[in-house]
UniProtKB/TrEMBL annotation:
Name assigned to this protein: Plasmid recombination enzyme
Record's keyword terms, sorted: Coiled coil
Family: Belongs to the plasmid mobilization pre family.
NCBIfam families: MobV
Keyword Coiled coil: yes
InterPro entries according to UniProt: Mob_Pre
Lineage: Bacteria, Bacillati, Bacillota, Bacilli, Bacillales
Organism encoding this protein: Bacillus badius
Stretches of the chain forming a coiled coil according to its record: 197-224, 308-342
Superkingdom: Bacteria
Length: 402
């Protein structure tokens, strides 16, 4: 029986745009070679009819339920993404309507558990090797984000038990996966690679089992066939008249009777039947051997083993690529931090420069406001504008406190 798979990964603000590009196939993926673009039209979102802006949708969910005035932390977990799937054999047994029902029933289960209003998206991918659904759960509880409380260890263990039970009640032949929840620490891509590797290993084990069964079948048949057949055969002889070297009184060669083989073999009937049976068994053994050779299980096993080695090699390459990207990301973050500091310094320097060259505070504020407006026209959402808005907000709060 196939296993029910629920894999969880935490998503922060900077993850959402990339998830949007991948899930909605807005850009060509350079990290997932399993995507068959010719089948991407079969993908669908069970929550949203049209493509959405992930950041905007998640923000709407948070703001509609948030009770406090505190801003959401920049490093907060905004979405707990669940990957729902099973193995390829499970989906091979389902037609398209049954496959959709599987994901719809899964969605209903999670909506009842975490709130229908907290499901940002539920994207089903049909264009990869195994159908699967990416479901974005915004972990809102009691008016605030609570990822650690909503998806704690007890909750994940509960999911492992209850999700398969629910799907069994819906009529799907699934069982609980392995105990433990070490898999939630893998990225979705790494999890898919690990699942693909396990699928290959499973197929190889199945082929090896079939091959072993055929070998045992041949060995059994070979033992049933006798190694030797004893035949008490005799040559068939006939009497013939032959000339001799002796001659009679008239000079004519004398003749005598001799026995010569006819070319036939005389075999007792019982032993002849044994010989026929041995020939039949030998033909049967040859037929079985030819059938196994035509199946070419050994070659197929080698092919799958080669694919597995290729997958493992690909995993190592992806790990190296992931490490390189992490290092590059760290470098970019560091550069971004330095740029922010430079912009902050320029902001303060610009303020001081303009303040020294204006006649009054009012004139300075007007000139600086116009300057920030010009920057805003050139760069939307600029750091200059952000610093300016923050400064104005502090001024308003100070006035209110007075």
């Amino acid at each position: 029986m196939s296993y029910a798979v629920v894999h969880m990964e935490k998503m922060k603000a900077y993850d959402l745009k990339g998830m949007q590009f991948h899930h909605q196939r807005e850009r060509e993926s350079r990290t997932n070679p399993d995507i068959d673009k010719e089948r991407s039209y079969q993908n669908y979102d069970l929550v949203n009819e049209d493509p959405i802006d992930f950041n905007k949708r998640v923000k709407e969910i948070i703001e509609s339920q948030k009770t406090g005035t505190r801003k959401t932390r920049k490093d907060a977990v905004l979405v707990n993404e669940l990957l729902i799937t099973s193995d390829r054999e499970f989906f091979d047994r389902l037609d398209p309507d049954e496959t959709r029902k599987f994901f719809e029933d899964s969605l209903t289960f999670f909506q009842e558990r975490y709130g229908k209003q907290n499901i940002a998206y539920a994207v089903v991918h049909m264009d990869e090797k195994t159908p699967h659904m990416h479901m974005g759960v915004v972990p809102m509880r009691d008016g605030r984000l609570q990822s650690k409380n909503v998806f704690n260890r007890q909750e994940l263990l509960w999911l492992q038990d209850k999700f398969p039970e629910h799907m069994q009640k819906m009529g799907f032949e699934l069982e609980r996966g392995e105990k433990g929840f070490d898999r939630e620490h893998l990225s979705v891509q790494d999890f898919k690679r690990k699942t693909a590797k396990e699928q290959l290993e499973k197929e190889i084990a199945s082929l090896e089992k079939k091959l072993s069964g055929k070998k045992n079948e041949l060995l059994t048949l070979n033992e049933e066939i006798s190694d030797e057949v004893r035949i008490s055969a005799k040559r068939e002889m006939k009497k013939v008249e032959v000339k001799t070297e002796e001659r009679n009184l008239f000079g004519i060669p004398k003749k005598e009777i001799k026995k010569k083989p006819t070319g036939n073999i005389l075999v007792p009937e019982k032993e002849f039947k044994q010989l026929v049976a041995a020939a039949r068994d030998n033909k049967q053994l040859k037929s079985r051997m030819e059938k196994i050779l035509r199946m070419d299980l050994a070659k197929e096993n080698q092919k799958l083993a080669s694919q597995l080695n290729g997958t493992l090699k690909g995993l190592k390459e992806k790990e190296r690529e992931n490490q390189r990207l992490n290092e590059e990301n760290y470098s970019l973050r560091s550069q971004n931090h330095e740029l922010r500091q430079e912009i902050h310094f320029l902001y303060q320097s610009t303020k001081e420069f303009l303040k020294e060259r204006t006649e009054s505070v009012r004139a300075f504020k007007n000139v600086f406001k116009d300057f920030v407006g010009k920057v805003k026209e050139k760069v939307i959402g600029s750091e200059f504008e952000r610093l300016y808005k923050r400064e104005k907000a502090r001024e308003r709060n100070t006035e209110l406190e007075r």
